Amino acid sequence: MDYRRILLPLAGQGGVFVLGAFAWLAFTKGLYASALVCALGAITLATMGLTHNAFSFGRDLLKRSQPGATFTSELSRRRLQVLLDQTPSPLLLQPNNGQLIAVNRAARQLFDVSYALPVAARKALLGEATALGLAHMSGQIKWKGQTFAVHLAEMEEEDALSHLAVLTDISADVRAAEASALRDLLKVLNHELMNALTPVASMSKSALDLLGDDTPESRAQAAKALERVVARTEGLTDFINAYRALTRLPSPVIRPCGLGLWLDVLTESFEAQWADKGVRFELETDGTDLSLLMDEDQMWLGVSNLLNNGAQAALEKADARVRLRLKREGDVMVFEVEDSGKGIPTESADQVFMPFYSTKVTGTGVGLSLARQIVQGHGSALLLVPVQEVRPDPLGGACFRFQVRVG
């Protein structure tokens, strides 16, 4: 309690009263000069008291104006919240305390919360990136049957860094893309099956007709026709097996994997298959003493497919080479698989990832599609890099790039 605000006014009033009493007493005794001095003193004290009261009133008024400023700030905050609540895209905020806050109405309705997401919801949403937070959320997430594109932003607040995620519903686009991909797949399947079955039917009928002649020559021709039927049937079996491998790929089991040993196995496998065919393998890496977050078996299969495709393409030219380059960029390891072949024609660049599409006569068209599916399962994207963007020392053929998180 501020006693000065009480005692000072009382002392002033007491002084005015005493001086006024002395002035009256002096006036009654005929001491007019003394009475005048006491009267002036009383007036001075009274004036000072009024000034102090005015100052106090102004200070109190100023203090009272502060709640008004707070009210204005609160009003602005509420207006901003109303605007955010009208935003159709769910907004998630993660301050440095690790919470995951549903910022607007769309986010609260989507995650069925009033403020912050519970731990179970955070784990279900972020998956392997739970401990890392929004900054490491993948480009797409699925929640309650909907697919959302994730756009991230950083905000600095009092020496602390917060992350904001804007979720854009792309379910309709994904369904349209899936329907289009299914139509394309059915076209390819129809084309491949018809290409395989038509000659089988034709050669089988020819063999049957030749066997009806029952001559040594006709039987020999029938035997050759049946050999071709068997060869085509085996090719069709390989095609079906490739299709089954593509459609039955399980979800990856992502865990820390030592890079050095994984690369040793990959290198030995590649050289065992291609070294005697004249394909040189080149490995460039920033270091092998790292751990990557990946399903080592699936990633081995995916990278092996890329290397094998590169080896087949490199054999079309002299001095066949395939290069695997690993370069660390922050918390990810960038993989690049490059070959010294003729490259991929511009008109085929948009089709190379389509299942069963191949620019090679003997290709199944599954390798790149399977590799892309594996890479996508690890939260990345398999990209065909334009030749002019390959650095340094490009081999001149096709180059594919993706990234894996460092564990």
From TrEMBL:
Its EC number is 2.7.13.3. CDD domains: HATPase. PROSITE patterns: HIS_KIN. It holds the Pfam family HATPase_c. SMART domains: HATPase_c. Keywords: ATP-binding, Kinase, Membrane, Nucleotide-binding, Transferase, Transmembrane, Transmembrane helix, Two-component regulatory system. SUPFAM superfamilies: ATPase domain of HSP90 chaperone/DNA topoisomerase II/histidine kinase. One of its GO terms (biological process) is phosphorelay signal transduction system. It comes from the Bacteria. One of its GO terms (molecular function) is ATP binding. It catalyses: ATP + protein L-histidine = ADP + protein N-phospho-L-histidine. Residues 188-407 form the Histidine kinase domain. It is an enzyme of class 2 (transferase). The chain crosses the membrane at residues 7-27, 33-55. This is histidine kinase.
